[in-house]
Design a protein that fits this description.
globular; alpha+beta
Amino acid sequence: MTTYKAPLRDMQFVMKDVLNYEKHYQSLPACDEVNQELIDAILGEASKFSEEVVAPLNTVGDEAGCEMLEDGEVRTPPGFKEAYQQYVDGGWPSLDQPSRYGGQDLPMSIGLTVREMTGTANWSWAMYPGLSHGAVETIDAHGSEEQKAMFMEPLVSGRWTGTMCLTEAQCGTDLGLLKSKAEQAEDGTYRITGSKLFVSSGEHDLAENIVHIVLARMPDSPPGTKGISLFIVPKFIPNEDGSIGERNNVRCGVLERKMGIHGNSTCLLNFDGATGYLVGEAKKGLNYMFTFMNFARLGTGLQGLAHSELAFQNSLAYSRDRLQMRSLTGPKNPGGPADPIIVHPDVRRMLLTQKAFAEGGRALIYFASTQGDILTMSDDPEARELADHVLSFLTPIIKAFLTETGFESANLGLQCFGGHGYVNEWGVEQNVRDARIGMLYEGTTGIQALDLLGRKVLGTRGKALTPVTSFILDFCKRSRNRKELRPYLKTLIQLTKQWKSLTRKIGFAAMRDRDAVGAASVDYIMFSGYVLLGVAWAASARAAYRRLEQGTTEEAFYRAKIQTAEFYFAKILPRTTSLLETMSAGPDPLMTMDENQFIF
């Protein structure tokens, strides 16, 4: 089985040295009492819960899975329910939620650190409370006052959990094809009929109620996405006093048999005239659902980070202990029969790649969470507007890039273990299986790439890219007085210029052939991710140099940061060169072959 130790030192490095969370919180009126002492206390307690309660259930959930009972009920793996109750009793669900609903009013960036720890410890378990945050955001942003009074407090407290119900058998990501129906009843509620696939945490025994956020069509709705409305469909219909009422007509029809995340109950849900409550205006459901989806996409990016971190921790421990062959430069363990495999260059390559993706990814997603703080808590309209633009741009990159690199890290982790990684004794093959879904749900890498290049960048004629490239160039300008960073800064400036010119080139090509967008999009989003991770590592190196100059008893820690940055710029960032080449090739190598020529 895998083991997990919360990387508190690295988390503190990002929060204190790289991003200066204390100064960030001082700029937000609602966070004036948030200080380092409070942050450290939260991290400490969350790490204990994640390491001691949640992590031991990771293998349990994988092996036992969920069990389908009579009448569509589902039993979660042993220990999951007790861990969730402990989570609720500790007040963790309400940590970064509004006080008007019983929350603790702490910023999103602090809540994200807790979700990182529980998710890395056991992603299957963490998904149960994880989607509730999206349900809260959606109802708070678009629901009526009556709906907020009915659903918000139980969701914020964790007594109830939430889900997102989008996909159907015939439509997948193309939600314009969905068929679920919503017919209005005499009492003003709606009767929802249809089936939804792949509903994470769709049915379980952890909470007393489950609140489904569902897309469906009214009888007079036009075809396509503009005809979709959004509904709240609870498992149990609440009474007027907030207590649990009668069972609604929504039940689990099938527990999906999956490659990974066995501990989470991914369901096919059948809605048979279930009572639903219309959210906002009719036929604007997909717009409202994006509130949920954007939160879920950042959460999925966090999953990619989790799998990188778990792979790195377990690979590192194994590579220090596993004896195999001798170092090419002479024995490093002369008293033993062989050297530990960590002395071999290829193993170092794999370990450093995992470390670079985990720690760089942490800096990137933590930065995004600070933009979320500004968007929701700042009293400066211009700051909120800029944060909205930046977060909107970063979201598809974080989701796609961190899940792709998370899966790469998980695979490298298995490779470090060799044949022992392929059997389930060590748990690293579970990490590979669990990581694979991240590139699929909340929109595949290809869908995120089209969102970034097609909608965000070309759809705004490059305006969405400007704040990000300006930030990078400003960072380089502010950092150029440190000579050790100049090679990194030169590379980042060059890549940023190429990013802008490449965008223009694709835009002009798309005027002639729209397939130019689809042909370049995945390479474009990966290119974007590598550049942004380069900025994260340059910022980390800058912070490490500064701390070394000030004097520290942790010299090895900060030296390792600098050396990992050197590795990233020398061995990983050059991948952008090949991506530039493949994007420049255009759509012809993909599209000229007739579909009938795809023969075998």
